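Appendix B, example 12.
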Amino acid sequence: MFKNRVQIALLATAVLVVAAGCGEYEKLLKSRDYQKKYDRAIAYYEDEDYVRAATLLDQVDNIFRGTTKADTVKFYQAKSYYGQKDYMMAGHYFNELSVTYPSSDFIEEADFMRAYCFYMQSPRPELDQDNTYKAITAMQMFMVKYPYSEKVEESQEIIVEMSDKLVEKSFISARLYYDLGYYKSAILALRNSLIAYPDTKYREELMFLILKSSYLLADNSITSLQRERFQATVDEYYSFIGEFPDGPHSREARRIYESSNRYLEDNSNET
């Protein structure tokens, strides 16, 4: 019984503390004491109460503009949105700090975090990769601006990761045409992917899909186009087998070559 009373008393105390905190915050929102708002915003941020910190900093942003605290307000404003995982708003405010206060002590971290916010918004490879491109560009700009920063190595790792995602996106997009049976478009898309990323880990798969698309295109073509397209398939076979003679697709590639070559021999007298 005594234990239950103690627990009830502790719970009641906690409720009162929370209520008092809420009351203080509500008063701050209506207050014109902007210095107190600023101080409490920083305290809220340090306590990881990012929503309250961001709200108060939004209120004092214009008030402290032009003062020695202006860049500090902007920095913690951005960090508070980052803490909420609102990477779009965080990136916006990091960029504002960089553009408006180029001499700030926070400038290097702000430039890195702006790029990092693009990185955090980069979606899975199947989706639009606009933020992936922006992350790569922003990280490259950061390394040019701060070549001796301790963040350079991390920036390089992010660029590699984002580049790999673009390679995968290119492969997925190119393969989609093949999966849909649009073999002519597939050949073009697959070639473009190879041109854009010649050292991709998908190189063997891309080259095999070009070969197979070429064969299926020829096989499904009207008679007047088949000879030319089967010859193109044979040419693709030599390109593929020259690079990957013992790969997992080599046996199927050989069957495609033999079938294509047989057609060409059987129709060698066609004009």
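Residues 215 and 256 are 7 Å apart (CA to CA). Residues 12-20 have pLDDT under 50 and may be disordered.
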